[in-house]
Amino acid sequence: MEYRFEQGNFADARIVRTRVFMEEQGFANEFDSLDEHPATLHVTLYDAEGALAGCARTFPDPEHPDEPGRWVFGRLAVLPEARGGGLGAALLAETERLAREAGATEMHLHAQCRATPFYERRGYEQYGPVELDEHVEHIWMRKAL
């Protein structure tokens, strides 16, 4: 499948995240101040015809400013009509690449528990307790980049 990435298109990322996380999955608090932070990288993905298909974001971990290589990945979403073709894995790989270029050496993410096999296949390991984020169980995962 052919596709292309864009960096910094938060307007399109907002469309995907609203459809997937709010309308489909029922989250209420999808957007936060990190979306507007200058260090946050928003990555959007478009199919061969130019249609918006997915998004992700990453940023230096604000909870660990003493560890500049520690970044947080999240908000990975692929629109329902574009799923099943490996676009989620492509978005993750591209976002990791961009984070490495920006100085990341370690990526952390707060995964929905049902998605942990996806991340484990890509080298992430779980740590910490299972926690509720709104109504969905999540667990922290990490990977050296």
From TrEMBL:
<dbReference type="InterPro" id="IPR000182">
    <property type="entry name" value="GNAT_dom"/>
</dbReference>
<dbReference type="InterPro" id="IPR016181">
    <property type="entry name" value="Acyl_CoA_acyltransferase"/>
</dbReference>
<keyword id="KW-0012">Acyltransferase</keyword>
<protein>
    <submittedName>
        <fullName>GNAT family N-acetyltransferase</fullName>
    </submittedName>
</protein>
<dbReference type="InterPro" id="IPR050832">
    <property type="entry name" value="Bact_Acetyltransf"/>
</dbReference>
<keyword id="KW-0808">Transferase</keyword>
<dbReference type="Pfam" id="PF13673">
    <property type="entry name" value="Acetyltransf_10"/>
</dbReference>
<feature type="domain" description="N-acetyltransferase">
    <location>
        <begin position="1"/>
        <end position="145"/>
    </location>
</feature>
<dbReference type="GO" id="GO:0016747">
    <property type="term" value="F:acyltransferase activity, transferring groups other than amino-acyl groups"/>
</dbReference>
